[in-house]
Write a structure and sequence with these properties.
This protein is α/β, with parallel strands linked by helices. Helix content is 48%, strand content 11%.
Length: 314
């Protein structure tokens, strides 16, 4: 123990940690003053958000993610108890997120922590719809993947289901204005599965991601009903617009629209606000930057040699 203290003293002589801490303090103060016009408010907890989302998922699928000794007569009580705790935790995290808002108009803040209760109420009311959508996703996965032996296997094992379950919850919160918490949920799923779905993306029922690693779906993407994606598919932006000052513009449509009954195979990249028409099939490794008419079958060879009705190339 004495040797450890001696080494620590020697290191403090060589490295002036106090001076470094003072410089970091100055930088923090400057950054926080610019962002918050005063003292920095407390931040939401990433760990708390991840924990409460896990609890919500267990309430949606209690037989799979609830306690192992949960009997049929106890399920509803478990769901009520779990949601009560999770929603209370969510309200606190939303309060913290909304308290960060420092945009002012007419001397008043645009958003308010007092709105957290409204957001949580709307989120809770959306949970039956989320469960119904997820059930449709599970059916699509079971019907579309010959390796899937049961719905239970998909719930337990398929990364695509983990990603879409998180997305369905995050998307509700994103639409309700809790965008940071929604992004935390999305990035937790991204870390776990390698599937990157922005919570702003709109996705219809019966959505199936097969394998999934490397899939990227951008914020303003719109995906219709009964769509299937394979690994490494990108639905991204082609370019970023800038405003008059040169800053990147935000909140404008810049990602693809994928209509109903479309299949996009591994490695395909679709960029920009293009539309893939209903019933189309996009082959592996295709690079697509133009609209595709309904019923199209696009392969690498066609992408190189053909043009479509809009007069542009792929």
């Amino acid at each position: 123990m004495t040797a450890f203290r001696d080494r620590r003293r020697a290191r403090q002589v060589e490295i002036d940690l106090g001076a470094i801490a003072a410089e970091l303090h100055g930088l923090r103060t400057l950054s926080q003053t610019r962002r918050y016009r005063g003292a920095a408010p407390p931040l939401p907890s990433r760990e708390a958000v991840i924990d409460l989302v896990s609890a919500v998922v267990s309430a949606l699928y209690p037989r799979h993610f609830g306690p192992r000794d949960l009997g049929p007569e106890d399920v509803d009580r478990f769901v009520v108890r779990t949601l009560d705790a999770a929603l209370a935790a969510l309200e606190r995290q939303i309060e913290l997120e909304l308290a960060l808002a420092r945009e002012w108009k007419g001397g008043q803040r645009i958003d308010s922590p007092l709105r957290a209760g409204e957001v949580v109420r709307a989120f809770a009311q959306a949970l039956p719809k989320v469960r119904a959508l997820l059930d449709s996703d599970l059916r699509a996965a079971f019907e579309g993947d010959p390796s899937a032996k049961s719905i239970d296997e998909i719930i337990f094992c398929f990364p695509g289901f983990v990603a879409i379950a998180h997305h369905r919850l995050a998307h509700v919160l994103y639409q309700l204005g809790a965008t940071m918490i929604a992004r935390v949920i999305a990035e937790d799923a991204h870390s776990a599965t390698g599937i990157d779905i922005h919570p702003g993306a709109t996705i219809g029922e019966r959505f199936f991601i097969d394998h999934g690693t490397g899939v990227v779906i951008g914020e303003t993407a719109i995906i219709g009903r009964n769509v299937r994606l394979y690994q490494a598919v990108t639905l991204g932006a082609k370019r970023f617009e800038a405003d008059a000052s040169g800053a990147l513009a935000k909140d404008y449509p810049r990602h693809p629209i994928v209509e109903d009954d479309v299949v996009i195979y591994a490695g395909a990249t679709v960029l920009g606000r293009v539309t893939i028409g209903r019933g189309s099939s996009i082959g592996g490794n295709v690079w697509l930057t133009r609209d595709v008419p309904p019923g199209s079958n696009v392969t690498q060879a066609k992408a190189r040699n053909e043009s479509f009705d809009d007069g542009g190339g792929i």
